């Protein structure tokens, strides 16, 4: 089993530790504001890799969004259901996503980059299948093509990224235009962020 294949089990084993370590201070607020600012109140948002729901999904719910959260960890989804009963929380692997409906916004914040390069490529048609014209898509990636290993409770945590050029091509091929792309945003914990819209 590759390090990427171990991600789901890793987050499930350390779900409570991850929740404890995950800052509940919304340091991502500028990007969440940008994302939500392009959506009307009451819009439907698909949060892929929603974790325990706090603080990002919680912030979207507080703005009046209808949030569907997907995570492969049953324990993290249970935390979402306990804390944020207004959301629709489902245990699922984003790589197999097929909900049969579309959303006004799709978010994959600090989750999509745990997939292998090939799995990331395969996600773009899945994004498109859950989008319509005007759907806002936001995700984080690495700053450049490559692989990096992090750490969660002493276990290796896999990350990968395609090149910016390939992300742009995949977005265009699947019906999205890039609205903004910032590499290692110093105001957002060094996150590399993509904001796009369905056309």
Topology:
Blueprint: H1 7-13, H2 15-21, H3 29-37, E1 44-48, H4 56-62, E2 66-71, H5 74-83, E3 88-91, E4 105-108, H6 117-129, E5 136-141, E6 146-152, E7 155-161, H7 164-173, E8 176-185, E9 191-198
Parallel strand pairs: 1-2, 1-4, 2-3, 4-5
Antiparallel strand pairs: 5-9, 6-7, 8-9
Q: Please, could you describe this protein's structure?
A:
- With 199 residues, the chain is of the alpha/beta class.
- The protein has a single domain, classed as Vaccinia Virus protein VP39 (Rossmann fold, 3-Layer(aba) Sandwich), CATH 3.40.50.
- It contains seven helices and nine strands.
- The protein has helices at residues 7-13, 15-21, 29-37, 56-62, 74-83, 117-129, 164-173, and strands at residues 44-48, 66-71, 88-91, 105-108, 136-141, 146-152, 155-161, 176-185, 191-198.
- The strands form two sheets. Strands 3-2-1-4-5-9-8 form a seven-stranded mixed β-sheet, with helices on both faces.
- Strand 6 and strand 7 form a beta hairpin.
- The chain is globular.
Descriptive labels:
199 residues, alpha/beta, Rossmann fold, two-stranded antiparallel ribbon, 9 strands, globular
CATH class: Alpha Beta
Number of strands: 9
The helix/strand series, from N terminus to C terminus, equals HHHEHEHEEHEEEHEE
Poorly predicted ranges (pLDDT <50, ≥5 residues)? none
For the record, what is the CATH homologous superfamily label?
Vaccinia Virus protein VP39
Please state the CA-atom Rg, rounded to the nearest Å. Answer: 15 Å
Termini separation (Å)? 38 Å
| Broad shape | globular
CATH architecture: 3-Layer(aba) Sandwich
